[in-house]
Amino acid sequence: MSIKVDDKIGTVRRAIPVRDARALFLRFMPGIVLVVLVLAVALANPLFLRPNSLLTAADSAAPLLVLAAGAMLVILCGSIDLSVAALASMCSVFVALWVPALGGWAVLAAVLVGATAGLIQGAVHVVAQIPSFIVTLGGLAVWSGIGLVASSAATVGVEGDSLEWAFTRIGDARIPSAALIAAGVAVLIAAVFWFTPVRRWFEAVGSAEPAAVLAGVPAAQIKLAAFTVSGACAGLAGGLLVARTYSGAPGLADSLLLPVVAAIVVGGTAITGGYGGIGRTVIGVLIITVLRVGLSVAGVDPSIEQIIYGVLVIGAVSLTIDRSKFQVMK
Amino acid sequence: MLGTYGPPAALLALCTAFSIASPQFRTWTNLRNVLDSASVLAVITVGLTFVLLLGAIDLSIEGVMAASGLSVALLLANNRNDVDLGFVAIIAAVALGACFGLANGLLSTRLRIPSFMTTLGVSAIGIGVATVLFGGIQPTISSPAVAEWANGQVLGLTRLTFVAAFVVVVGVLIQRYTRIGRYARVIGGAEDLAALSGVRVARYKTLAFTLAGALYGLGGVMVTIQLGSGIVAAGAGQNFTAITAAVVGGTLLSGGRGGVIQSVVGVLIVTVLANGLVLIGVSPYVQKAVQGIIVVAAVAITTWPLRERMRVVK
């Protein structure tokens, strides 16, 4: 036993200088990448810097940002939520089905459904001590199954303008409402992180859960909260998607899982938890969005997008992961 | 006891229950349908078993099947190009699958990233490769000899079903008598001890991932032959079904336990369940949700006693 303790101390001591270099790298790299990307796209096509194209880009980034903001909380406490995209798809079906009865309030109902689904996943993860990727992989199947059954595997159309508020342009500046909603979610999370001790709790649970528990951090509650907010964000993203496609479908958001994970890790949030934040996630989402625009400007076949997401996820995870946390890598 | 006899008993119970509930279920034709429709799932689940034995997981099945399926469709006689490599096309597609598996293994062991992240990324890469190969025009296989493998019957079963049976036998032999199989179990049981005992953990992990990738490639080839054309969605939904089958059969996600035979029992359970539920009139869409619950419940049941010991689970 004593050997093991010595061993631990040894690793920590060796890790400190390395960690500083890594932290420095993680802090500035995403921002630099974003600036370089924007400059590259602007050089290739100067029209990209016109306010109108920038606002269109912001509009298209909104659902991604909402999903990523929630999923980032789960990753920050060291777990992962692979179900966000499937949950957003399921919620899109519910929004489309409920709009005739509830009007615009259908989105709120979907947010509540998403939050409940997230809470269930969090509770299974915390109570049964099952790794979060298994719980949320199972959840992914359950939510898409429910979405398929509820919609009879068909696209559900939405009539009328009760969801117009979520996909319109506001004021003379023509600011997209979806981007404002997404920004609102990000600002809300940032405010909670800034004005309450919650941020430190998340980071403590993500960095060293046993130590956090001994220090009196409500670790189980923090994890439950993370999964619940992640689910609620998925519900909101489902609503935003319905507003822009005028329909809900059981596979509507499924292709967003990889971009969401890519945005979070490219922004510099470590998949091992304890390091990251909402600002980084916003930067990560912007990187992914500008990258998409850049690819189409460069005339790259859009089917290559998936390959790029795959490479980005693996590359960014390998750069940001904290390997000292693992005795063996499964 | 429950671990050894539970899954076969469940299979027997399911068959009995469906036989009572549906006269259609208890016919020879339906038995042949079940075996034929289990063939692809059996092949990929045998591959997945070697990864699960390591204690790792593989989420790349859909991507690998898509890439292999499209490449085999483009390399056999088809409506898109003048290439017709015959049997070599199948070898090439399986080899492509093995390359994806090798990438999974190398990325996980050399970059030291959890396998669920690497394989998720590799799956996206596979889907991307398949989409590029698809190129907007669906490649349709025009060789009648190839179609014969999916349609023609030998002893009442399609030839692909015999391919699957052969893969299962080879899988059992690899698991029992080669280092890939035996070390996979050792590594999954206690990776640190295996490394201290001189097992080249990284090498044998990579080999297990490569073997699995080759079998996903073969699965993609089989689906493409069944459909008669290459599509990007060749493996859609198969990844989770394979995980369900393995877990239900008694191959634990925590590694070191189970094996090819257990997984095949799981494949039969999942296939009988799908077949029987359709015959008694349950929507096939419900099955996806049921599979999700089954996996989480199975993992919860097997790890419940360890709950207190594993205080920190991410």
Number of helices of chain B: 13
What is the average per-residue confidence, as pLDDT of chain A, rounded to a whole number?
88
Tell me the count of domains of chain B: 1
How many β strands of chain A by DSSP?
A: 4
CATH architecture grouping of chain A:
Orthogonal Bundle
Amino- and carboxy-terminal Cα gap of chain A: 24 Å
The CATH C-level class name of chain A: Mainly Alpha
Structural class by secondary-structure content of chain A? mainly alpha
Task: Please explain how this structure is put together.
The complex is a heterodimer of chains A (330) and B (314). Chain A has 330 residues and is mainly alpha-helical. Chain A has one domain: Orthogonal Bundle (ABC transporter involved in vitamin B12 uptake, BtuC). Helices cover 73% and strands 2% of the residues of chain A. In chain A, helix 3 packs across helix 9. The N terminus of chain A is likely disordered. Chain B has a single domain, classed as ABC transporter involved in vitamin B12 uptake, BtuC. Helix content of chain B is 73%, strand content 1%. In chain B, strand 1 and strand 2 form a beta hairpin. The mean pLDDT of chain B is 89. Chain A: This is ABC transporter permease.
In short:
With 330 residues, chain A is mainly α. In chain A, 73% of the residues lie in helices and 2% in strands. The model of chain A is unreliable at 1-16 (pLDDT under 50).
Key phrases:
heterodimer; A: 330 residues; mainly alpha; ABC transporter involved in vitamin B12 uptake, BtuC; two-stranded antiparallel ribbon; B: 314 residues; two-stranded antiparallel sheet; 13 helices; 2 strands; 73% helix
